[in-house]
Each structure stands twice: as structure tokens, then as C-alpha cells.
Write a structure and sequence with these properties.
The chain is an all-alpha fold. It contains 14 helices and 2 strands. It has a two-stranded antiparallel ribbon with strand order 1-2.
């Protein structure tokens, strides 16, 4: 029955994510916030709620490997999602129409990942007010990074996106209703995330696959379902920046959740106590983040073959990382 409960929680998560991304698109159209802002802050935060509840729940049941594996595995899977949709919609060449402002978010995600990678190597088991100093450093860098991003001037929206966004497609949905619906969907996603964590821990015991692999692959993929659905819906709604903002914003928010998880961890620094297999995930995310930044930075790639190379490399690195975690 544990697998049935796991699949049920995943299905509820997908349904709530569809509603979440639709309401986010309404807020983009009917408020003064653009697609990048709504995606990076609101949609990214809401779709990361399963990671919050999953990781904190994992710590509370004394399984820190699922907590950290879920965070790093989700970030790995999120960039994989972006690459897969880029390949699926390759004729549209999505990266050419994503705002370069996403470089700030991707850069912050890279900085936080490298900090986590160093923490996993050095293993400094020191705490301050009961929280690991490495987790505190991640939280401080996150705060500084978000403040810096907020101060940067925004780039004009790409012409193709302006032409393709259909104005007035949500005449029957008011902004107030969209905000209320967004909050309800976020709460449902948070509850489903808790169920995913508990059933995932039981699956790790039943199958004997190990907490690191289950956390980094199975639970990470499941808690990333909201991001996957949100990105697909945003792209179907022709809101490229909403899609990119959701993925990259989720990745930096997920790194903050590592610091949140350490607050509930009572045995020292959480990053100093987890399995070394998480190093594979951290290295993989670092490589994928660089590939994403390169893809956003380049412009007007005429060759279709050259255009898809970065996304193909992302897919390869993701599967190699997953295999190394499995055998680790």
C-alpha cells in the first residue's frame, strides 16, 4: 500500500501544480508583476513547498540523507526538466527568448551549490545557535543574492514573447480569485509533499535501495513534479520567463531549505553528517548550472544542431549523476 499512497500523493501534487501555474499566469497578466518576477518568487516558492515539507519531515524522522538528497536531487531534476522541454520545443528555441535577467538567478544558484559542495567536502561540524555554520552561510548568501537581484534593472521582454502572449485569455478569473486559488493550491502541494516524504522513507526501507538514492532520485523527482507541470503549463501558455523563473527560482529556494532543515536537525551540522554520495549531486548541479547560464547568455544560434547541444549535455550529465548515486 505504501506505493499506492506514494502515487496518490504524487497525483495530487500534479493536479495542484496545474492550478498553481494557471493562477500564476493570471497574476502575470492582471498585476504589475512580470512573468520573471512571478515565476522566480511566487511560483518558484510555491512549487518548492513539497521540498520544504519533505526535507523537514525527513529530519524529524531522523533521516537527514533523504532531506539533503531531496534538495540536491530536486535541483538536478529541475534543470533536467528545463533541458527536456527545451528539446521538446526545440523549434521555438526557448533559450533565445528568455530574459538575460535569469543569469542573476542562475548565478546565485551556482554560488549556493558550490558553497554546499565545499561544505560536503570539508565537513565542518560546527554550530551557532544550534544551526550548522555552513547552513548559516548558505542562508546569508541567499539573502544577499536576492537583495542584489532585486536591485538590478530588468531587461525588456523578448519580442516573440510579447507577440505570443494572448492578452485577455482570463477574463472570467479575477486577480483576487487567482490569488486565493494560488494560496489554496500551494497548501495542497505542501500537504502532498509531507505524504511523499513519509511514504518515500518507507519505500527506502521496503526496497533496501538506501536513503541517499531514494531521496536523490525517487523523492526528488516526485517533489519536483510541481516544477515540471508548472514549466509545461507556462510554456503552453507561451510565458517563457514564467517557466524559466519557476525552475531557477526553485533551485535557489531549495538551497535555502538546506539551512531550514538544519534548524530542525539536533545532532550538529546536517551537511557534516550526510552521505558522501551527495557530492555527486552537487557536482552535477554545478555543471548543469554552467550549461544553463551559457545557454541563456548566447543569442541567435542559427544552427539547430548547435542550439540543442547544451540541453543534450544536461540530459547526459543528469543520467550519469543518477547512475553514480545509485551505485555509490
Amino acid at each position: 500500500m505504501v506505493f499506492v499512497y506514494f502515487l496518490l500523493a504524487a497525483a495530487i501534487t500534479v493536479y495542484a501544480a496545474i492550478k498553481l501555474s494557471t493562477y500564476a499566469d493570471v497574476m502575470t497578466e492582471k498585476s504589475k508583476m512580470g512573468g520573471m518576477l512571478v515565476g522566480t518568487v511566487l511560483l518558484a516558492g510555491a512549487t518548492s513547498l513539497p521540498e520544504v515539507t519533505t526535507s523537514i519531515s525527513a529530519v524529524m524522522i531522523d533521516n537527514p540523507d533523504i532531506a539533503i538528497g531531496n534538495m540536491l536531487g530536486s535541483n538536478l531534476f529541475n534543470i533536467f526538466i528545463l533541458a527536456m522541454f527545451d528539446l521538446y520545443f526545440r523549434q521555438k528555441q526557448l533559450f533565445n527568448y528568455a530574459s538575460r535577467d535569469h543569469l542573476y538567478t542562475a548565478g546565485l544558484g551556482l554560488l549556493l551549490t558550490v558553497t554546499t559542495l565545499i561544505a560536503l567536502i570539508v565537513r565542518v561540524d560546527m554550530t551557532f545557535i544550534g544551526i550548522g555554520v555552513d547552513a548559516l552561510l548558505i542562508a546569508i548568501l541567499y539573502g544577499i543574492g536576492i537583495y542584489y537581484i532585486g536591485k538590478q534593472p530588468t531587461e525588456p521582454v523578448a519580442e516573440q514573447e510579447v507577440e505570443e502572449v494572448v492578452v485577455g485569455k482570463y477574463e472570467e478569473i479575477t486577480l483576487k480569485r487567482a490569488v486565493f486559488g494560488f494560496i489554496i493550491a500551494a497548501i495542497v502541494i505542501m500537504a502532498a509533499g509531507t505524504a511523499l516524504s513519509i511514504t518515500g522513507d518507507q519505500i527506502a526501507v521496503v526496497t533496501g535501495l538506501g536513503s541517499s538514492f531514494v531521496g536523490s532520485f525517487l523523492i526528488a523527482a516526485s517533489t519536483s513534479l510541481p516544477e515540471a507541470v508548472a514549466v509545461f503549463m507556462a510554456l503552453k501558455l507561451r510565458n517563457v520567463n514564467l517557466a524559466f523563473g519557476s525552475i531557477l527560482g526553485s533551485n535557489i529556494f531549495n538551497m535555502l531549505i538546506i539551512a531550514m532543515s538544519d534548524v530542525f536537525y539536533r545532532n550538529g551540522s546536517i551537511l557534516a553528517d550526510v552521505s558522501t554520495s551527495h557530492l555527486v549531486s552537487a557536482v552535477g548541479i554545478t555543471i548543469l548550472s554552467i550549461l544553463v547560464m551559457y545557454s541563456v547568455l548566447r543569442r541567435n544560434v542559427t544552427s539547430k544542431v548547435r542550439y540543442v547541444i547544451p540541453s543534450l549535455l544536461v540530459v547526459v550529465v543528469y543520467f550519469v549523476s543518477s547512475y553514480l548515486i545509485f551505485i555509490g
